[in-house]
Amino acid sequence: xxxxxxxxxxxxxxxxxxxxxxxxxxxxxxxxxxxxxxxxxxxxxxxxxxxxxxxxxxxxxxxxxxxxxxxxxxxxxxxxxxxxxxxxxxxxxxxxxxxxxxxxxxxxxxxxxxxxxxxxxxxxxxxxxxxxxxxxxxxxxxxxxxxxxxxxxxxxxxxxxxxxxxxxxxxxxxxxxxxxxxxxxxxxxxxxxxxxxxxxxxxxxxxxxxxxxxxxxxxxxxxxxxxxxxxxxxxxxxxxxxxx
Amino acid sequence: xxxxxxxxxxxxxxxxxxxxxxxxxxxxxxxxxxxxxxxxxxxxxxxxxxxxxxxxxxxxxxxxxxxxxxxxxxxxxxxxxxxxxxxxxxxxxxxxxxxxxxxx
Lengths: 244, 104
Known about the structure:
Chain A: The chain crosses the membrane at residues 28-51, 71-93, 147-172, 179-198, 218-239. The complex is a heterodimer of chains A (244) and B (104). By secondary structure, chain A is mainly α.
């Protein structure tokens, strides 16, 4: 950074990171609010799953991703085959490969350690917030600023997720059914999909994936999800070949 | 104990997928894989969301399905016009509460 001295675009070599981290935390607040209903439902589901509540909650720090947590704990509680549980959860999380490849393009100048640490925090809302900032015209600042923002968003959302899912587990059985918190989880996923529907292949993947998963929802233990996902990916690839 | 091991296995696998391209500076997925990866997000998330909206808690019923689908429609429209995640989500939830209350 010190080599920038004298260049016309020189910024103070060690621009304060505090405002960046505060900005990151502030940006995370509305997202946290939106994740509270889903987090509470998930926590309650974890506690009611039939496996030890503490073990079930440990999926929060271990997986840090609600969709896979929900699937894994429900399947474990239903006594599903271990291979099916692991495979299903990993398929649900395979979109992290996409996030990883996409975020890597904005991680130039991050140290190895920062990259390995940052990978742990890579979840849907963290990715969405970070990309929103990194794809601005100014690229979200220099490498140091971008890293501070990313880690700020990630650690804020991580902390909130640990707390909200724990609260849901403690409140299990107290939350009234009339709140329709069961709708919160699919609504959250729906709102994650909508921003991705920017092209014909994306629409094809989502429509096919959803429709096939509905048709196959009678299949035992999470297999409908796997079938739907595979069909959706195939449909996206097929339409993508025709429309680019 | 067995359950914890399963969760650890999923956690390790997930972490490796998160690190796959981020931690290995400069690595890019092979072109063929990259083309498929693009469709993973919409396909998987829709495959999770839709069945749960059509059959909340695993059952298709007037008082379960109608509120969920109405909530989804309202959330979608709210998101389209405001691009606000919390607004769309709570808008949808309020509709789910209201229709559930009306139908029961």
